[in-house]
Amino acid sequence: MLLALELIGVVAFAASGALAAVQARLDLFGVAVLAVTTGLGGGILRDVLLGVHPPTTLRTWPFLAVCVVTALVTFYFHPQIARLRKPVLVADAFGLGVFATSGTVIALDLNAPVYTACLIGMTTGIGGGAARDLLLREIPVVLRKEIYALAALLGAVVVGLGYLLKLPMGPVAILGSVVVITVRLLALWRKWNAPVPRDPS
Amino acid sequence: MLLALELIGVVAFAASGALAAVQARLDLFGVAVLAVTTGLGGGILRDVLLGVHPPTTLRTWPFLAVCVVTALVTFYFHPQIARLRKPVLVADAFGLGVFATSGTVIALDLNAPVYTACLIGMTTGIGGGAARDLLLREIPVVLRKEIYALAALLGAVVVGLGYLLKLPMGPVAILGSVVVITVRLLALWRKWNAPVPRDPS
Amino acid sequence: MLLALELIGVVAFAASGALAAVQARLDLFGVAVLAVTTGLGGGILRDVLLGVHPPTTLRTWPFLAVCVVTALVTFYFHPQIARLRKPVLVADAFGLGVFATSGTVIALDLNAPVYTACLIGMTTGIGGGAARDLLLREIPVVLRKEIYALAALLGAVVVGLGYLLKLPMGPVAILGSVVVITVRLLALWRKWNAPVPRDPS
Question: Quick check: A34 and C119 CB within 8 A?
Fold first, then answer.
């Protein structure tokens, strides 16, 4: 179950990386590198923080294979460079949700305290997109105007509460992912903004 | 003692991150994310290098709480966006000093050799500011003209020498922090510069 | 043998970092910081992924010393700022080759599976240059048009195959490095490009 959820997150993040790379007019290799970095980045960060050596996603081939296939499919089926900003953000939202919750579940499995597990889950969700934006020298999505880190934290907290209430982890992880994705997409769609600094006057 | 010193460093770095975020006109969430990243970044990097899993600052709540409170206070009490460059650098100097020395002490506590402990201390000091500047896509402070990494190394070496001379670590750490902060602020104030490459002629 | 190979890689990457820093008109400290980061970055990343704490390159002084000496020599013997782009890329190619193969050998020594060792080797090769470019806010070399990550992977696979065939690791590592450097330099020289996204029409 967790594996299936995580593969979905990898595909979503790999697609967001590949789409962003196509938009930035990178060549096929650049698209593949960015798909792999975005798809595996969050999980590698999670494993480094939890002390899982070597990182899980570098130990079995399906994760990497899924990223490369996603990159190829994206590259060949997305001829139009224009207007890729929105698909990037939607794919990113799915990756964010799935990784934030699966990261929390994995941290709990490794006996991290609930508080720590939620923070590591949030970091797992944020990591892939941050790596993608840093490599492309874009404003990191986590600093942009719409709710991002908070959405990831919300999903992690859903999982943390489910754990404390001893609910079954599978459905809880799915619920958490849905919460993150919903909040993030609503924030993008409705342009939910937080206050900005007052202008000097 | 070490905990108090480290909380001071976290506040200083969180303030520098929050001020830089306000200057970059990020919204409240962006300010909080940058305060947390800058405040906790160096310590997380240190723990990853030392193999402390999960990182200390993700295990107890005061560190995160202090960052969020600093972000809120900075956001609401700093209405003027202009002229925040100097406060960012001053707060950064305090964080640099405290983290470089406390990082060295912690590495020594974990039985790292003195040489390694000094390098890890320096890296701890540099880490938070580098993360802040990378996320904001600014020239990393560690590459700017005035003495930075060298100041951090100096503080780490003070602690290393104190350790070799079996002096009490508390006062030594404070002395090291004061040395870093003094050198760094003097370098900023007096514009101490290193030589630059000769122009082609 | 492996140590000698790795010191060559450190010198190559340190030189590429120092040259890039001179080109960016950083001062002597900035040149040193960038030489150290580029020279040691890949190895530190490798050790973090493999769980070697603290990282090898922070434990013995020759690695750091070699970076600092390389920075000084580069700084004082490279007065012309112009036309440093090519030397940066050539030095980078040597670092890429040596680190990709030595990283794979080290991962195999630590009992990583062959598949994992190849990926960690590739990451080790890519890490130093990526850190250099991120700090300088340049387009990361790994995303630029000519074959880069694939060349590193090729060298890692040569080592992996040599290991499976139980060949002596020393010559295999040298062969792998030569393969990477040759492929990378040919790609730069002949401008081997991968396909780019089709323009919208």
Answer: no
DSSP letter at C201 equals -
Closest approach of C176 to chain B, Cα-based (Å): 29
Q: C195–A134: do the CB atoms touch at under 8 Å?
A: no
Q: d(Cα B148, Cα B127) in Å, to the nearest integer? A: 12
* CA distance linking residue C91 with residue A77, whole number of Å: 37
Contact C195, A27 (CB under 8 A): yes
Interatomic CA distance for residues B55 and B2, integer angstroms: 16
**Interchain proximity B26–A143, CB inside 8 Å:** yes
What's C42-53 look like in SS3?
HHHHHHHHHCCC
Taking only the tens place, the pLDDT of each residue in B7-18 is: 999 999 999 999
- Whole-angstrom distance, CA of residue C103 vs CA of residue C113: 13
| Whole-number Cα distances in Å, B192 to B83, B141, B181, B189 | 21, 15, 14, 8
Q: What is the pTM of this model?
A: 0.91
- For residue C201, the model assigns a pLDDT of 45
Domain ranges, ordered by start, for chain B: 2-189
Residue of C nearest to B120 (CA): C58
Comparing CB atoms, the residue among B59, B61, B82 nearest residue A200 is B82
| Chain A residue numbers touching B56 (CB-CB < 8 A) | none
Q: Find the length of chain A.
A: 201
pLDDT band, residue A201 (cuts 50/70/90): very low
pLDDT in tens, A1-46: 778 888 999 999 999 999 999 888 888 889 999 999 999 999 999 9
Q: Does B25 touch chain A (CB under 8 A)?
A: yes
